[in-house]
Specification:
heterodimer; A: 116 residues; mainly beta; six-stranded mixed beta sheet; four-stranded antiparallel beta sheet; B: 111 residues; five-stranded antiparallel beta sheet; 0% helix; 59% strand; globular
């Protein structure tokens, strides 16, 4: 079946502009995660959606970052007034409870954001 | 604070030269430990989940093992196509399902 998809694959924007990044999770997956990965760095957690529960926003680095998930499916990560330090690869992942104690994530290919 | 540390940061092997990658963790309680493979320009790809000490899982040339403090990813007779960054992540029991990732080991296998 189809995996997690993200768009655009690459985005170049000018400092101060707003950007929207989109994630289409695997159909039926109730959990959705956003991460940021900078060059040579690990995965930095941003936000977590699980079903109809309130999202866990504890990883968002500033109030310029926000995300929503419509209809329990597609998610959009919005970065307002972009800064050069926002340049990174933004990864989306989805997962589905399996009855086991924990469950693996399936990642999209990422969106490479460059702020000039 | 939950921590995940991977070592070495980088590893260069000759084709056929077996070795192991390490993931050590300090968490209040382990719900699950994951291994992922990430190729350049791509998202991480799930490899294994381990739940309890003593557990082992295998896939082709890879075998993952788990103790109470660390996990090893053993690579037997690696091939150049095994070159990638290998990521370890843990989920903590009693907490949310947000994993903590290590910074990865970059593996290069020379032909």
């Amino acid at each position: 079946g189809a995996g997690v998809s993200q768009s655009p694959s690459n985005k170049v924007t000018e400092k101060g502009k707003d950007v929207e990044l989109r994630c289409d999770p695997i159909s039926g997956h109730t959990a959705l995660y956003w991460y940021r990965q900078s060059l040579g760095q690990g995965l930095e957690f941003l936000i977590y959606f699980q079903g109809n529960s309130a999202p866990d926003k504890s990883g968002l680095p500033s109030d310029r970052f926000s995300a929503e998930r419509t209809g329990g499916s597609v998610s959009t990560l919005t970065i307002q007034r972009t800064q050069q330090e926002d340049s990174a690869v933004y990864l989306c992942a989805s997962s589905q409870p399996t009855g086991l104690p924990s469950y693996e994530q399936y990642f999209g290919p990422g969106t490479r954001l460059t702020v000039t | 604070e939950d921590q995940v540390t991977q070592s070495p940061e980088a590893l260069r092997l000759q084709e056929g030269e077996s070795s192991s990658l390490n993931c050590s963790y300090t968490v209040s309680g382990l719900r699950g430990l994951f291994w992922y493979r990430q190729d350049p320009g791509k998202g991480p790809e799930f490899l294994f989940t381990l739940y309890s000490a003593g557990e082992e899982k295998e896939k082709e040339r890879l075998k993952a093992t788990l103790t109470k403090k660390e996990s090893f990813l053993h690579i037997t007779a690696p091939k150049p196509e095994d070159s990638a960054t290998y990521l370890c992540a843990v989920q903590v029991s009693g907490g949310s399902y947000i994993p903590t990732f290590g910074r990865g080991t970059s593996l290069i296998v020379h032909p």
